C-alpha cells in the first residue's frame, strides 16, 4: 500500500511556503513513499509494534525527528512514536514484546523500550500548556494527532506516519519546508519560543546540522526574544551548543546565534570580537577571522580522518582562540595595533565561559590549553628554534599536539599567498623536526634520566617535596640537552643538591 496524505495536510501558503509546482508536488509524494519504505526497511519492529496497538483499537504514529530523518534517508536505531493510548495501556502493550522497558519519562507520558537492536520511545498524544516561566510544560493528554504536532518545535519535526495504514500526516506543511530546506514553526515563532526558549538554540542547531535556511519570521522572533534564553539552564544551553558545533555547517549556526543576539546571552565573547576596524585596517576583523579558522580547522579534521567523529575540543578552541583580543587591543604610537598576551587572557576567558556552561573538566582544560598554546609556534621564525625549544613545544602540548597542529595551521587566514605559503612551509619544517627528534628520543615519554626512587636512593632522603623539585630539575635538563648518560645525570643531581643545601649520602 502506498502512503496516503492525511486530509489535514495544509497548503504551503498557510506557513509561508509558496504553492508547490507540479514537479515539486510529485517530488513530495515520492519523498513520502520513500520515507515509509525507508522506515519499514530499517525498522521492521515498527510494524510489529503497530499491530499490537491496532489490535486493541489504538493508533501508533512514527513522529517528529524520526519522520524527518526517514525522509532524509538517515533514519537511525532510535525511533519516536506517539499514540492515543495512555501510559498504563502502553506499558501493558509493551510487556511481552520488548526486551527491556523503562518509565523514567512517564510523568511526561513517555515510556521507552528496546527490542532487536532498536530503541523506541512512545509518548501519549499531548496538548500541553506552559507557564512561560520555566520550560517544562503542564502535561495534559490530547486526543488528536494534529494537536500533538502543533506543539512541536518546527514544521519539519511536525510530521507523522500512521504505521498500520501507512498514512502520512502533515498538517503544517513540514514536507514542503523539508524539500525547500526551510526552518519554520507550526505555531507562530513567538508562541513557540515563549513556550520553550530552548527552541531558539535548536533553530541555530538545525541550521548547523541540516543546512536549513530559517524563515524570516523565525529570525525576527529570535532577535526580539533573545533574552528569554536566560530561562534555560546552562546544561541545556551547553548541550545545544555542542551539537551545533559538531554539525556539518557550524559556521552558519554560529552566525545565526550572533546575528540574532542570542550569543550575547550564551557566549558573549563571540560578538565582543566584532571589533571596530580602524581606518588603516591595522588588524583583521577578529570575529570573521575566527569563523574562517573554525572552517579551516574542520577541513583539516576531516582530511585527517573523514570517518572520525567531529572534534568538539578542536572546534571550540578554533572558535575561541582569539577571544582575548578585545581585552588586550592597544593602538601603538606608530599607528599599529597590538594584542600582547591575548593567548594568556583568552585561555582564562575560555576556561571561565566553559565552566559557566557546565562543560566537563577535561573539555575545559583541553580547550584552554589549546588557546594558550596557539601562538607559541610564531616564535619559531625561520626554523631557528633549538632542539630544546622543539622538545618543550611537544612536551607542553602533550596529547593535544595533533590538535595543536591543526589549530595553528587553521589560524593562517592571510590573503597574502606568499606569506601563507611561508607560514605553512615553516610549520611543515617544525613538524618534520618534531618527527625526527621524536624518532630519536621518544618525545611522547620524556622523563628525567633518574626516577624518583633513584633520586631518593642517591640523596639518601625519603619521600617529600625535595624529591619533586629534584625530579623537575632533571626533567628541565632533559628537555634542554636531550637524553643524558647515567653518570652525567647523577653528577647533575649532586650538583643541584649541593646548591640546595642537601648533602647526598653517596657523595
UniProtKB/TrEMBL annotation:
<feature type="domain" description="Poly A polymerase head">
    <location>
        <begin position="60"/>
        <end position="183"/>
    </location>
</feature>
<protein>
    <submittedName>
        <fullName>Poly(A) polymerase</fullName>
        <ecNumber>2.7.7.19</ecNumber>
    </submittedName>
</protein>
<dbReference type="InterPro" id="IPR006674">
    <property type="entry name" value="HD_domain"/>
</dbReference>
<dbReference type="InterPro" id="IPR032828">
    <property type="entry name" value="PolyA_RNA-bd"/>
</dbReference>
<dbReference type="Pfam" id="PF01743">
    <property type="entry name" value="PolyA_pol"/>
</dbReference>
<keyword id="KW-0548">Nucleotidyltransferase</keyword>
<keyword id="KW-0808">Transferase</keyword>
<keyword id="KW-0460">Magnesium</keyword>
<dbReference type="Pfam" id="PF12627">
    <property type="entry name" value="PolyA_pol_RNAbd"/>
</dbReference>
<feature type="region of interest" description="Disordered">
    <location>
        <begin position="1"/>
        <end position="27"/>
    </location>
</feature>
<dbReference type="InterPro" id="IPR003607">
    <property type="entry name" value="HD/PDEase_dom"/>
</dbReference>
<dbReference type="GO" id="GO:0000166">
    <property type="term" value="F:nucleotide binding"/>
</dbReference>
<keyword id="KW-0479">Metal-binding</keyword>
<feature type="domain" description="HD">
    <location>
        <begin position="286"/>
        <end position="380"/>
    </location>
</feature>
<dbReference type="InterPro" id="IPR043519">
    <property type="entry name" value="NT_sf"/>
</dbReference>
<dbReference type="GO" id="GO:0046872">
    <property type="term" value="F:metal ion binding"/>
</dbReference>
<keyword id="KW-0819">tRNA processing</keyword>
<feature type="coiled-coil region">
    <location>
        <begin position="420"/>
        <end position="447"/>
    </location>
</feature>
<dbReference type="GO" id="GO:0008033">
    <property type="term" value="P:tRNA processing"/>
</dbReference>
<feature type="domain" description="tRNA nucleotidyltransferase/poly(A) polymerase RNA and SrmB- binding">
    <location>
        <begin position="211"/>
        <end position="272"/>
    </location>
</feature>
<dbReference type="InterPro" id="IPR006675">
    <property type="entry name" value="HDIG_dom"/>
</dbReference>
<keyword id="KW-0547">Nucleotide-binding</keyword>
<keyword id="KW-0175">Coiled coil</keyword>
<dbReference type="Pfam" id="PF01966">
    <property type="entry name" value="HD"/>
</dbReference>
<dbReference type="InterPro" id="IPR014065">
    <property type="entry name" value="tRNA_adenylyltransferase"/>
</dbReference>
<dbReference type="InterPro" id="IPR002646">
    <property type="entry name" value="PolA_pol_head_dom"/>
</dbReference>
<dbReference type="GO" id="GO:0000049">
    <property type="term" value="F:tRNA binding"/>
</dbReference>
<dbReference type="InterPro" id="IPR050264">
    <property type="entry name" value="Bact_CCA-adding_enz_type3_sf"/>
</dbReference>
<dbReference type="GO" id="GO:1990817">
    <property type="term" value="F:poly(A) RNA polymerase activity"/>
</dbReference>
